[in-house]
Write a structure and sequence with these properties.
This protein is of the alpha+beta class. It is built from 13 helices and 8 strands.
């Protein structure tokens, strides 16, 4: 049985190892995308209020922005981050997910929200191996390959753990450290065996959650484990169409300042508040589900809050989606979990590479032994 597990580990790793390494490396590069993007484009995210200068009222600010937009583009929301030195993010109806950074004190449009080309490349590698996403009935081959490779990675991690655990248990004192002074081959061996052992839990959690973006059948099965019934694609698109229709209606910006002030007063420790034509959400900077938020529904004529749906009262499906994202990206524990996920993803990158090296050295040793035997 042990030989079979060892062969499964080897013969699955050889053809898929390079894709696994690419997926892990690109994932590691994406962990701190938000922080690096904000640092490199701080002029978009931060403003410098002078003296006792007060922000413009939200309705006046959005009216100024609206005047600069093409006739077929409308404002569908505004996101306000906590802090006096933060710009506002104005969400537009098109193109998809388009947003503008705006100075809340002057109404000046600072620029578009765009992904840095490096991170866009890493994202396309991570999700589709540089292929295009699925659209118009076309299945993304890259997404399928990444998904299959991730399933293989899960099997390889489990077989590697089963295969290496007996030796690890026998030599606990010596085997739980990576030796740096015993040669390159020993270093790769320790990195492969110990690196996999240290990272296996987080690598499995990131792999199993990541598969929900690769296969709809897996997503349905994964959600069913938590008692969540996955919404059909038809229903999803129908809801999106309905939402788009709702967003296309004229927004009553006049009541948005009142909505914001009410929510901000009730939630002084908010991370950001996003207001849309019929509802607003408030999120907090805390560990756990980073997409957790409370939803406020308001009267579009008066701006009065009609109902509040707190995060704990929301549907389980919404919570599960947020947790899947938080676990997969390593954002559930702030900087601590992000740094850990970054290092683990790099370890995941090294596992196939060190495995290839050890396999090649083993073949070379066998070849030399055969030559010596023939000579004798």
């Amino acid at each position: 049985m042990k030989r079979i597990i060892k062969k499964i580990h080897l013969w699955l790793s050889l053809p898929f190892g390079l894709i696994i390494a690419i997926t892990c490396f690109s994932g590691a590069m994406l962990v701190f995308e938000d922080e690096i993007t904000e640092f490199s484009s701080s002029h978009l995210y931060k403003v410098n209020p002078t003296g006792t200068q007060e922000p413009l009222s939200i309705d006046h600010l959005l009216s100024l922005v609206e005047e600069s937009l093409p006739e077929d583009v409308s404002i569908i929301g505004v996101t306000i981050a906590a802090g006096d030195n933060r710009s506002y993010l104005v969400n537009l109806s098109k193109p998809r997910r388009a947003s503008l950074f705006v100075n809340p004190y002057t109404g000046e449009v600072l620029g578009n929200k765009e992904r840095i080309p490096f991170f866009m490349t890493m994202f396309r590698l991570h999700r589709w191996l540089m292929d295009s996403p699925s659209s118009n009935g076309r299945v993304s081959r890259g997404r399928v390959i990444v998904g299959i490779s991730t399933i293989i990675f899960v099997i390889v991690l489990l077989t590697g753990l089963i295969n290496g655990w007996p030796r690890m248990r026998k030599k606990v004192k010596n085997r739980f450290k990576i030796h740096l002074n015993r040669g390159w081959r020993r270093f790769n061996y320790d990195l492969h065996v110990l690196g996999g052992f240290y990272a296996v839990i987080l690598l499995l959690s990131m792999s199993l959650t990541g598969l929900t973006w690769s296969f709809s059948w897996y997503s349905s099965a994964f959600n069913s484990l938590f008692g969540v019934e996955t919404q059909t694609r038809e229903g999803h698109h129908a809801n999106r169409s309905a939402q788009s229709a709702s967003n296309s209606t004229e927004s009553a910006f006049e009541v948005w300042p009142m909505v914001y002030e009410t929510i901000a007063a009730e939630n002084p420790a908010y991370k950001q508040i996003r207001i849309t034509p019929q509802s607003a959400t408030v999120s907090f900077d805390r560990w756990g589900n980073v997409r957790a938020s409370d939803t406020y529904n308001f009267d579009t004529n008066s701006g009065e809050i009609e109902s509040i749906e707190h995060y704990k009262e929301k549907e389980k499906a919404s919570k599960i989606r947020g947790w899947i994202y938080s676990v997969h990206t390593g954002s559930w524990g702030g900087w601590v979990s992000k740094m850990l996920s970054f290092l683990v993803a790099l370890l995941g990158t090294s596992l196939p590479l060190s495995g290839y090296y050890l396999w090649w050295k083993r073949l070379s040793s066998k070849s030399r032994r055969k030559k010596k035997t023939i000579r004798k």
